[in-house]
Write a structure and sequence with these properties.
306 residues; TIM Barrel; 4-stranded parallel beta sheet; 11 strands; globular; histidine biosynthesis; amino-acid biosynthesis; histidinol-phosphatase activity
Length: 306
């Protein structure tokens, strides 16, 4: 009975599949203990994803997020005896107005937690396709190293402004780069920025997600790569598990490989957001609990996991 802190459904995300209820039902069928619903926040029209441009206005995208929260609460009630559903969102960090959007959402609603992610640098998507990645790289000066530095600087701005309880796909920037399976060797400026960001996350007891989607997308390791995990471990940092699923065909995908990675890196304890734990952040209605990796290994989930 493992845990995932990051998911999307085609009902509320244009680049995902299946309804939210179908995703929840699949998570139950696969034996999840805790499964988080974290649809994307609404964005102004200049920051729409390509698949949203023909189907939404800024107003309809905002309403879609409101509808998501209603559906999520209904699902939590309906399946309370079968699974622990967490209700949150996945942030963006694109331009100054993004912070205002997030503040507005958190003033209107109470969440269990949220996933603090960035998918843009210089306001350009960096994980959509190679062409847009190259545009972002050109905007940074033309090299992967320059773009990596800018990405981690923008991530630091997000961390300082939001203090997300869970930080999503910390090193997503490497996905479409020429250094996708590298460990940032020789990039001293990048390492300095990553170290700074990790120290800041550890300072407020934030957690890094171990995101198996990196494996699904062809990376040799999940997000974050092992040197990042080892650095965060030395700081006493906490880790949670995520599949970052975008439909039922991705729920729990590569979780056995994620478990092997956890063991390889030397992580001995996995944390998870828990509504029964006292919050350590007054903004949220849930805290964190943990399970040792030794006990995690004994769960029956692994006999059927993909």
């Amino acid at each position: 009975m493992p845990y995932s802190h990051h998911s999307h459904s085609g009902q509320f995300c244009g680049h995902a599949k299946n309804t939210l209820l179908e995703v929840v039902q699949d998570a139950i069928a696969k034996g999840f203990h805790t499964f988080a619903l974290t649809e994307h926040i609404p964005r102004p029209i200049e920051d729409f994803y390509p698949e949203e441009a023909d189907s939404h206005t800024a107003e309809s995208l905002a309403k879609l997020f409101d509808d998501y929260l209603v559906e999520a609460e209904l699902a939590r009630e309906a399946y309370a005896s079968q699974i622990k559903l967490l209700i949150g969102f996945e942030s963006e960090w694109i331009r100054p107005s993004t912070h205002q959007i997030i503040q507005g959402i958190m003033e209107r609603y109470t969440f269990d937690f949220f996933m603090g992610s960035i998918h843009h640098c210089h306001t350009i998507p960096i994980d959509f396709d190679r062409a847009t990645y190259e545009k972002a790289r050109d905007a940074a000066g033309g090299t992967d190293e320059q773009l990596f530095e800018d990405y981690f600087d923008e991530q630091y701005e997000m961390l300082q402004a939001l203090k997300p309880p869970v930080v999503g796909h910390f090193d997503l920037i490497r996905l479409l780069s020429d250094h996708r399976d590298a460990d940032f060797k020789g990039m001293d400026g990048v390492w300095k920025r990553m170290q700074r960001n990790l120290e800041y996350i550890a300072s407020y007891d934030g957690a890094l997600e171990l995101n198996s989607a990196g494996l699904r997308k062809g990376l040799a390791e999940p997000y974050p790569c092992s040197p990042v995990c080892l650095a965060f471990l030395r700081m006493g940092g906490r880790f949670v598990m995520s599949d970052d699923s975008h439909g039922i065909d991705q729920v729990a995908t590569n979780y056995p490989r994620l478990l092997q990675y956890i063991q390889k890196v030397g992580i001995s304890e996995i944390f998870y957001v828990d509504k029964e734990a006292a919050p350590n952040d007054s903004r949220f209605s849930a805290g964190f609990s943990s399970i040792t990796v030794d006990n995690l290994l004994q769960l029956p989930f692994w006999t059927t996991a993909r």
